[in-house]
Inverse folding.
């Protein structure tokens, strides 16, 4: 029997597992099985909370298609809430290791003994096109053309431990995400595929964003995508260095600090239910 907790960050949902000593050899197959919304638990990803030699905990994230994500902003908030609420740590400042961003500093806001909000140091954005990675040898890659099925988009490339391309459109809320997201995800310009954000800037302090996540498809929220969108918007001169990024599942507050060049994300995480599953 496998014990799990179903959690979400603004609707980006995960099957969270605690207690393994290392990533199971069948984690990829389990992610495909458990994340299926008809024959499994249903989630955007399977998250393992593991021991770390460098931090308080390590997080490994398997996407719903079985691929591994280097980083996930919504998942790391869920992990932070899980370990505090379950008594695995009693500090309000903790560290979590990910394979994409290394050791990340996490600050918890606690009310009535439960985590209500999480602020995560998401690290410095990577802006060199070849390092994101893309096939564009520029640093940074801003407003660069990419053509799909005869339509040209202009993208800004940012890595937040995982690769993103941010595209500005007139109406992100009603944009046809399901048509263009999957085509851009696998475009040859992006050698490790790409997370695609479609964004509309409404003011210097607020941006609407919708996301097609690499390996998961359309999700209600993407923490690293929100961070990439803020960085992109600053590079394009469209917003201030802190702004609210409004996703389908809710809002994240993102800051790109001018002094330390690091990006900070603040938002909630929630428990849906707990259970046991025969696997």
């Amino acid at each position: 029997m496998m014990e799990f907790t179903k959690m979400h960050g603004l609707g980006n949902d995960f099957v969270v597992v605690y207690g393994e000593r290392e990533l199971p050899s069948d984690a990829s197959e389990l992610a495909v099985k458990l994340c299926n919304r008809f024959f499994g638990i249903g989630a955007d990803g399977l998250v393992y909370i593991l021991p770390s030699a460098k931090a308080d905990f390590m997080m490994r994230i398997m996407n719903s298609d079985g691929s591994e994500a280097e980083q996930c902003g919504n998942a790391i908030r869920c992990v932070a809430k899980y370990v505090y609420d379950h008594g695995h740590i009693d500090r309000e400042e903790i560290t979590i290791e990910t394979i994409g961003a290394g050791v990340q500093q996490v600050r918890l806001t606690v009310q009535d003994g439960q985590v209500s909000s999480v602020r995560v140091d998401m690290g410095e954005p990577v802006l060199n096109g070849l390092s994101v990675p893309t096939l564009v040898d520029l640093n940074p890659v801003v407003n660069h053309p990419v053509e799909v099925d005869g339509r040209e988009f202009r993208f800004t490339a940012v890595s937040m431990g995982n690769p993103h391309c941010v595209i500005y459109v007139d109406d992100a809320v009603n944009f046809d995400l399901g048509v263009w997201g999957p085509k851009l995800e696998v475009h040859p310009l992006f050698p490790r595929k790409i997370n695609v954000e479609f964004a509309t800037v409404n003011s210097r302090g607020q941006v609407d964003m919708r996301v097609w996540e690499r390996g998961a498809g359309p999700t209600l929220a993407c923490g690293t995508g929100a961070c990439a969108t803020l960085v992109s918007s600053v590079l394009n001169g469209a917003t201030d260095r802190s702004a609210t990024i409004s996703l389908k599942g809710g809002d994240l507050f993102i800051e790109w600090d001018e002094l330390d060049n690091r990006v900070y994300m603040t938002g909630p995480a929630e428990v849906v239910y707990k259970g046991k599953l025969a696997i």
